[in-house]
Amino acid sequence: MIHKTILSKVMTTIYSWNVNGIRAVINKDKLLPFIKSDQPDVLCLQETKAKPEQVTLDLPDYHAYWNSAEKPGYSGTAIISKTVPLSLMNNFPSAIAKTYKLDIDSYGDPDHEGRVLTAEYPKFWVVTVYTPNAKDDLSRLELRESHWDPAFFEILKTTRKN
Q: What does DSSP assign to residue 34?
């Protein structure tokens, strides 16, 4: 599903799309036609499941920024933007990750799964996120409720201050 947001004060069109595998979306010829027809200023992607060197994108009017998981073919986020951001941040800042003990998860450290990518622009911030699933057996629910969600909220509070 693709979500569209228009920031009217800054005249920016932002789309968010969980692609469930960027290579599959490209191979099905869905990404480039979408970008050509809708011309997003910023396109946030979740669940990319690839590293940038595994993907060929011919987007001369755009810049691509990736936060890929260390585990091949798993999770990952990206931002494709017409404008170069002032700054980028992958994952959680180390102080937030330590404070909220993100490394307690039995599945591995979610801060190595490429789940958060933050971009600062002159008049706004964009955060694309692929939140960990609680799992069918709820084995990741403790991570979500007590660690991940509060840590992510800290990122949002920090960007809001700026």
A: H
Beta bridge partners of 81: 42, 63
How big is the CA angle at 67 (ends 10 and 127), to the nearest 5 degrees?
30
Residues with Cβ < 8 Å from 9, sequence gap 6 or more? 123
pLDDT in tens, 8-19: 666 789 999 999
| Distance from the first to the final alpha carbon of the chain | 30
Q: What is the pLDDT of residues 133-155, one digit of tens each?
A: 888 999 888 888 999 999 999 99
Looking at the DSSP bridge assignments, the partners of residue 25 are none
Is residue 90 within 8 Å of residue 97, measured between CB atoms?
A: no
Strand 125-129 to 87-90 pairing: unpaired
Query: How far apart, in Å, are the Cα atoms of 112 and each of 62, 73, 103?
Result: 26, 13, 9
Buried b / exposed e along 5-35 (16+ C-beta atoms within 10 A)? eeeeeeebebbbbbbebbbebbeeeebeebb
